[in-house]
Amino acid sequence: MDETARGGWLRPPVDDAPRWPDWRHLGRRVLYAIGQIILFLVLFQAYKMVRKLFIQRAEGVAFDNALDILHLEKLLHIDIELRAQQWVLDQPYALIWFFDHWYSYFSDIFYVSACICILLAPVRYRYLRRLYFLTMLVALPWYFIYPLAPPRFMGPYGFPFVDTLAVFGPNYFSDSGLVTANRLAAMPSMHVGWTTVAAFMVTAALPWHNIGRIIATILVVGICLTVMVTGNHYVMDMVGGWLVVGLCLIINRLLPYPLPIPWPWRHRERESASSARHEPANS
Description:
Blueprint: H1 23-53, H2 59-76, H3 81-89, H4 93-104, H5 106-120, H6 122-145, H7 164-168, H8 190-205, H9 211-229, H10 235-254, H11 266-277
């Protein structure tokens, strides 16, 4: 069967195999990638604003929920966050420096992954971009339904986590940014969820010799370690992030693609996809 006509979880119904763009189209894709990064930056600030200003609840609820999570993880024998953090802090400073910077700049990894997908597989990128938009919409209600204090705030409750970003920097949770973060919104971990979407983009764009899958595995394993050892998320938060992504994968697959909305640029996108399918592959 022709794979370009089947679609899939990471591919739209009408697909196109990844390839390096013809030089005549390279400049256009670079400009498109820049525009997409600007779009992501704007959407992320809007996402933080909604999460911060409109869906907060009492702090007592968030800390009670955190104690419940810690108790549940102990029952399931998956309460590894504190031990992982203490082990890393016992190592040379360079290791916690690495994890702190990964946490602070994880969005840059997402943008690079998106750019790779735009350059090599623009048709698949647009499909996975919709998945990213869906994860934003699905994740937001969770912060109202289940506010959760992160591990770094649980010292007064007998859990000696260290806020490594506050102690060693960089100060990711500074109050001087354009939109400050909701600090009681640990569930779900969209650091993990959006890194998983970035991993999908890399996998879709780099199918040769399992290069994409290897990079994707490194990204997901790395962010899971990062959110734990920096004291920002529990194991269950990672599960929550993956549940959001999994649900959105199903929604993305069930929704018609593209949506039957007569956007003015839809005709140009069809022409672009058609042109991409007929570009000669570079040797």
